[in-house]
Amino acid sequence: MKINELAAVIFSMFIVKFLYDAPIDAVFILPIFFIGFYLLFKLSPTYDYSSLFSTSLFVLILAFFFFSRPTFTIGILILMVVFLFYNYPIFLFKKGFKCYTENDFKGALRYYDKALAFYKKVKPISINVLNEPIYMLLFFNKGEALFTIGNYEGALNYFNKALNIHNDNGDVWNNKGLTLEMLNRDDEAIMAYDNAINYDSDNDLYYCNKGTVLKKLNRNDESLDCFNKALKINPENKNALKAKKELN
Question: Which residues does UniProt call coiled coil (predicted)?
Answer without folding.
Answer: none
